[in-house]
Amino acid sequence: MGKYLIRRLLQSILVIVGVTLLSFITLHIAGDPTYLFVSERASEEEIIATRARLGFDRPIAEQYISFLVNLSRGDFGNSLKARTSAFDLVMERLPATLELTLFAMLVATVFAIPIGIISAINRGTPVDGGVMLLAMLGQSIPSFWLGLMFILFVGLQLRWLPISGHVPLLKPLFAGEFDLFLTNLPQAIRHLIMPALTVGVFSLSRNARLVRSAMLEVLSLDYIKTARAKGLVERKVIIGHAFRNALIPVVTILGLEFGFLLSGVVVVETVFSWPGVGRQVFNAINQRDIPVVQAAVVLFSFMFVLLNLIVDLLYAVLDPRVRLE
Amino acid sequence: MKLFRLLLALVAILAVSAAISAQAPMPDDNTLVIAQSVDIDGWEPSEVNSRPEANMINHVFATLYEITETGVLEPNLASGISYSEDGKEITFTMHEGLTCHDGEPLTAEDVAYTFNRAGDDANGFTGNTAGFVFDSAGFIRAEAVSELDVTIFVERFQSVNHGLLSEVFIHCKDSYEAMSLEEAAQTPIGSGPYKFVEWVPDSHTLMEKFENFLPREAGFDRLVWRVIPEASTRVAELIAGNVDVISNVVPDQADAVNMSGVAEVQAVQGTRRMYVGLNQREQYNDSEGGRAIKDTAVRVALQYAVDVPTICATLLGTECERMSSMVNPPNDNPNLEPYPYDPMKAGELLDAAGYPADDNGERFHIVFQAGSGRYLNDANVVQAISQYLTDVGVIVDLQMMDWSSEFVPALRQHNVGPLYFVGTGGGTWNAQYDMADISTPTGATNYTEWSNPEWFALRETLADPSLTAEETQDIVNAMLEVMYNDPPWLFLYFQPDFYGVSNRVDWQARRDEKVIVYKAQLAM
Fold first, then answer.
1. Rounded to a whole number, what is the distance in Å from the CA of B240 to chain A's nearest CA?
2. Is A246 found in the same domain as A136?
3. Cross-chain residue pair B445–A235, CB shorter than 8 Å
4. The whole model's pTM is what?
5. Among B145, B141, B136, which Cα is nearest to B164's?
6. How many angstroms separate the CA atoms of A21 and A15, rounded?
7. Which domain holds residue A168?
8. In angstroms, rounded to a whole number, what is the distance separating the alpha carbons of residues B65 and B42?
9. Alpha carbon distance B187, B185 (integer Å)
10. Are residues A288 and B242, on separate chains, in Cβ contact within 8 Å?
11. Is residue A103 part of a domain?
12. pLDDT tens digits, one per residue of A65-95
């Protein structure tokens, strides 16, 4: 177990370094960022001076190595636009994105599991057909369009939920301001519902189909027949015997889910005016604010790698046949 | 079953929490809410780079003079202005009794500090003040000559210097000397009609009226600047009554706003001049299109090939006036008529210029480059222009580029084209402000490197402080006529701007893209 963990951690470091290299190269091959930091009427001397000040006059390899050296000290550098710590800027936005992503994950799992089970145990019935049709729709609708429809109908026509904006929830919690957390809670949930549904509908649909197919596979196995033959009530057969084994592919997906949802929040944060990391990175890419992009990339990669590691460890808990070596 | 019960409980919690307050609170009578598509990057007054940033910061920091919606320069923090004989020393006299938001008295020394701090290379500012105003005005230094008089030293006289220097946001010396650049970017201490209260990046900014702002009284007690990037969401918030003023309404959503009964769209002819650049650089001589547009007759012919009013009506959602020159009305040459759409004439002129159509109706091929997503419906506009040019036998290879990573770097190096589509900001207050785009043959914003000697000779004569306003306008008119007959641009239109305004407020949109709301009031 210990060796396995060490090996996985070393692999994770390699993955993160690889991701930073890719993003670094991508940002630099897109053109000289200096022009985005000078005014339209800047003279050639001013452009050269700005390029030197920002460090873009050095060879890319040298810039990258310098970035890695600083990264090893936990220093991502300062945002080229805001002139403050890039890492702090990203961390400031992270709670908003985490709220959205976690809530979307909640939607995508809590709803998907019963829907998938209901569909599986009613296989071939109109219930199954209807659920799968909805799941197909959920996977086909672009989140951008779905978000706008929520805004128009739920927000504007029905006036049930706020159209856009954000009320902080995790930030006061992380800061130990529990009173503020509790005060914000109702409004924060109201602001979260539409964006989280928009982010999570695709995953909800996919997970429901996954649970259904996993359940169908397990339900056809001999040990389920044995359980039924023993006279167990159907609820115990489904939940106690079938569901646990059907969970393994779902748990695998959940690890990847987080990364998928994080990538999906960029569009949704824009539609719902949600002040999260997704929008921040999008703006930073447009402005070639490389330290901010790199800080977000490293942070996201780290979270993604960590979650996948946790998922791998969960395998062993869920399925004793799996050994971590 | 536990799972189902849990699920039901969750749904119930969400439903109850949604029902707790069915509607978002609307702004009260003392609060004005404005929504823009982008946020400010930071509150350093010398780093302001974009119009949305300037809109916000303009309410926290005041300027010496203010440009009104009709293009008049009105005293603001300063009460008067005077020039030395050679026009290179400009002295502003400050109002008495001014203070910054922390209570520090605002005097000539603070103004001098503001200018010198913005121009200090050690600070590395690249915003509008250091990068545009100071370059354009030829700023050297500023000096307080008495408690209320501050003199700005510039390299040359220009009639635009007064307005240019009025774009600098003034702040107090003691407070800014005590702050690091990082602190200044987070917690501004202003001099304008509103005090900064709170900034949640990419969410909102809250400002409160500064009661001691002497030049004028602001209308609302509080301003909330919300950041809502998506145009449809901004419109939805406006119709729902949650915001009062929104910028950049998409034309096809104007009807939805106007029919809502709670808000209306104000469409104004903006001051941004949209044009197709005809790049004259030697490097394009290798292509037939690049060689062709070196010929003045070809450049004139192309003016007749594009139906600008139809582009406006069909793609921009409003009627608009075609530009006859690079200068915004009312400072333009009134004798110049916009080129009409006349493809037959375009063909005849191209024939006469030595570019007859071949059997396929083709005259020459040319590359046309444009960034996407920057201007109103730009991708469709450039496609329409390409088709109009193709219709007269100019076969266009349209290349759409990413705005920030591809187009801007190439544009800044004058390496776009030979045809390229761009818009350049202008003003209503001085023709020379608009004409500053072409200051020298290789000047930074003379992207075509057009070098008509008559234009630049006339431009030299403008640097005479003894010229009367009429004499100056005569020279401007002559310059614009030179440009009309030897066009470096294919003149298009002044970009229309669309604002959504709640019926509960009395506010009028301006032509110059500035959202200035301190004069706004509740509608009667």
1. 6
2. yes
3. no
4. 0.87
5. B136
6. 10
7. 89-318
8. 24
9. 6
10. no
11. yes
12. 888 888 888 888 888 877 788 999 999 999 9
Q: Do you know the residue count of chain A?
A: 325
pLDDT band per the 50, 70, 90 thresholds, residue B6: low
**Chain B from 30 to 89: CB within 8 A of any A CB:** 38, 41-42, 44, 49
Whether residue A158 sits in one domain with residue A14:
no
Q: Does B131 touch chain A (CB under 8 A)?
A: yes
- Identify the band that residue B440 occupies on the pLDDT scale cut at 50, 70 and 90: confident
- Tokens matching residue B83: 């020039």
Q: Are residues A20 and A114 in the same domain?
A: no
Confirm whether A323 is domain-assigned: no
Q: Same structural domain for residues A11 and A160? A: no
In the predicted model, is pLDDT for residue A161 greater than 80?
yes
- Across chain B, mean pLDDT equals 91
Residues A64 and A133 in one domain: no
The chain A residue lying nearest B126, using CA atoms, is: A38
Which residues of chain B does A121 touch, with a Cβ-Cβ cutoff of 8 Å?
A: none
The CATH number that applies at residue A171 is: 1.10.3720.10
Note whether A37 and A134 are same-domain residues: no
Q: Are B455 and B479 in contact (CB under 8 A)?
A: yes
Half-sphere exposure of B303 (CA within 13 A, CB side): 22
Residues of B in Cβ contact (< 8 Å) with A190: 17-18, 20-21
**A105 contacts A262 by C-beta, under 8 angstroms:** no
Among candidate residues A118, A103, A191, the one with its CA nearest the CA of residue B1: A118
Q: Could you tell me if residue A146 is inside a domain?
A: yes
Stretch 196-225 of chain A: residues touching chain B, C-beta under 8 Å: none
Instruction: Tell me if residue A91 falls in helix, strand or coil.
Output: helix
For residue A81, the chain B residues in CB contact (below 8 A) are 41-42
Domain membership of residue A78 (yes or no) is: no
pLDDT tier for residue B412 given thresholds of 50, 70 and 90: confident
**Rounded-to-integer distance, Cα B304 and Cα B296, Å:** 13
Tell me the backbone φ, ψ of residue B174, rounded to 5 degrees: -60, -45
Residue A106, amino acid: L
On chain A, the residues whose CB falls within 8 A of the CB of B227 are 273, 275
**Residues B79-89, mean pLDDT to the nearest whole number:** 94
Say yes or no: A234 contacts chain B, CB-CB below 8 A: no
| Mean pLDDT value across residues A153-159 | 92
Contact B229 A164 (CB under 8 A): no
ipTM greater than cut 0.90:
no
Which of A273, A277, A280 should we substitute to test contact with B (largest number of B Cβ atoms within 10 Å)?
A: A273
* Angle at the Cα of B127 from the Cα atoms of B121 and B128, rounded to 5 degrees: 115
**Among A39, A271, A286, whose Cβ lies nearest the Cβ of B131?**
A39
Chosen domain end from A72, A100, A115: A72
State whether A153 and A257 are in the same domain.
Answer: yes
Give the C-alpha distances (Å, rounded to integers) separating B205 from B202, B459, B473.
9, 43, 42
Instruction: Write the CA distances from A70 to A62, A66, A76, B323, integer angstroms.
Output: 12, 6, 6, 53
Contact between residue B17 and residue A191 where contact means Cβ atoms under 8 Å apart: no
Cβ–Cβ contact A239 with B under 8 A: yes
State yes or no: pLDDT of A259 exceeds 50: yes
| Boundary (domain end) residue, out of A72, A104, A130 | A72
The answer, for B404 touching chain A at a CB cutoff of 8 Å, is yes
Instruction: Tally the domains of chain A.
Output: 2
Contact B202 A275 (CB under 8 A): yes
Residues 115-154 of A with CB under 8 A from B: 148, 151-152
Q: How many CA within 13 A on the CB side of residue B445? A: 22
B185 closest CB neighbour out of A30, A83, A160 = A83
Task: Give phi and psi for B500, each to the nearest 5.
Answer: -100, 130
Cross-chain residue pair A42–B131, CB shorter than 8 Å? yes
Say yes or no: A95 and A46 in one domain: no
Q: Are strands B489-502 and B394-402 parallel, antiparallel or unpaired?
A: unpaired
